[in-house]
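Why do we care about 3D structure at all? Because function follows from shape, and shape follows, mostly, from sequence. That is the central idea of this module. The next example makes it concrete: a single protein chain, its amino acid sequence, and then its structure expressed as C-alpha cells.
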Amino acid sequence: MVDPDLDRFSSRRSTVYATHGVVATSQPLAAEAGVDILRSGGNAFDAAVGTAATLNVVEPAYTGLGGDVFALYRTASGETGAMRACGGAPAEATIERVRDAVSDGHPSTATMPMTGPHTVTVPGTARGWEATVEEFGNLTLSDVLQPAINYAVDGYPVTEVIAEAWKQAEDLFTDEHAREAYLVNGERAPRVGETVRFPELGESLRSIADHGADVVYEGEIGEAIVEEVRSKGGFLTIDDLADFDVEFPEPVSTTYRGAEVYELPPNNQGLIALEALNIAAELEAGAEPTGSAARIHKLVEAMKLAFHDGHRYITDPDYEPIPPLASRGWARKRATAVGQEALEDVSVGVPNANAEDADTVLLCVADDEGNVVSYINSRFKGFGSGLVAGDTGIALQNRGGSFSLDPDHPNRLEPGKRPFHTLIPGLVRFEDDDWAAFGVMGGYMQPQGHLQVLSHVLDDDLPLQRALDQPRWRYREDGTLAVEDRFSGSLTAKLVRRGHDVRIDLPSGFGGAQIARTDSGTLSAATDPRKDGNATGY
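And the structure:
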C-alpha cells in the first residue's frame, strides 16, 4: 500500500524560467544531469537522452534499458517529428505456443501473463537513445551517458517516493539475477536515504557508450538478454534483436482552441487523446466554467468514448487497419452519444487489466536553439517482467503483457507484432515560435492527463505550473470516476447527480506531469508535485 502521508502535497512552486535551457522530469538528480549536458554544449536532444539514461539508474522502478522509448519534437530548423523505438514479439511467439506454455494444461482458457519470459518484447531503448543523439544531437552517445554511468558506479541516496515504489516491487524479484541486481544483499528494497550502486548496470552503460547500441542487439549484452529469456522458457532470439530498427513516423495531430496538438500514431494510444480533444471541442466543454461539474462531465464523457474506440481498434498498423479516430467527422458522430447523464457500460481496457496503472518516466527539454523535446521511457509496469539479463543489470520489460491470446482480438499476439503501447509524449504549437513539449505518466492516465492539462492551458490560460497543479479526475476501467480529495464535496455531489460513480483516490493515482516551453526565445518549464518532480534550467 502507498503511504498516504507521503502522498499529500500542497504546491507552492512557480514556473521555472531560464535563458539557455530547461529540463523537467520526475527526479531531481536526473534533471540536473540534463542541465549539465546543456551547459557542456549539448542541445535539448542530448539532454533528453542523458536525463533518460540517468533516470534508468536513479528511478529504476519505472524505467530502464530493457524497455522502450519514444519522442515528439520540434527542431531548431522548424521540423516537427516523432521517434519510436519499440520492438515487437519474438518471431517464434505464436498464440498457440504461448498458450501451451502458460496454460497449466488448459490452453483454450489461457490469458496473457503480466510477468515472465513471454511478456518480454524486443527492447527499443538503446537504439532509441543512440538514434536521437546521432540524428539531432551536438554530442556523442558516450558524452550523454556519462552522468548515468557515474551514478550507477558511485551511487546515490534513494528518495521517499522511489523507495516506496521499490518496496512494492520486492515480490517480483523471484529470480536470482534480479534479486542480486536490485535488492540490498539480495533480500530487500533499499530504504529512504540509503545509498545504492549498480556496478553491473554501470558496466553495461559503459559498454554501450564505448561500442554503441549494437552491443545490445548483436553483441554480448544481446546474448545475455536472449539467454535469460530462453532459459526461462521464452522465445526471444538474437535475430529478433538484430532485426530491430528505430522508426521516425509522422505525428498525428488535431487543433484545439487554435493550438495544434501532436501525438504518436498507433501502435501508441495517441489517437485516444486526439479523439477525446475533438469530442470535447464538439461538446464545447471549454466554454463551461473552470472546474465546474458541467465541464468535467463533458471531458469525462469524451474520454470514455475515446477509450472505448482506441482500446478496440489501436494495435500495430502493419497487422490491422485502424479507423480515422482523430478525425473531426468521427468526433462529431461520437459526440451525439453524450447527454446530461453519464454514459454507462462503456468498456475500457486492453486485454490485461493490470495495465491500467502501468509506470513510466517522462521528461521534457527546451533549449535556446529552439529545440523542444518530449521524451518518454518505460518497461511498462514497474521493474517489468521480473527478469534481469544475466550479469548486465538490465531489467527486461513486460510490454508483451498487453497482447491478447484471443485470435479475434485486434491486439492479438503475432510473431514480430508490436503490442498496444500506452506511452505517449505530447507536443503543442501555440504560435509559429511558441511550442511546448508535455506529457503525463501512468498507463491509461496518460491521455486523460493530456486532455486535462491542455484544457487548463488552452481553455483557462493558466501558467504552466498552475495547470499541472490543478486537481485531476480519472475514469477507471471498472467504470468509476476517481477524483483527488481536493475536489470539493459540492462538486463531487454534482457529478454523482449526473450519474458518475465517484471515488476519492490518492494523488499518485493521477500521474506525474512535465512540460517545457519555448516562446519566442523565452524558456519555461514546470513539473508535477505529485511525484519527486523537478524542473530546472540555466
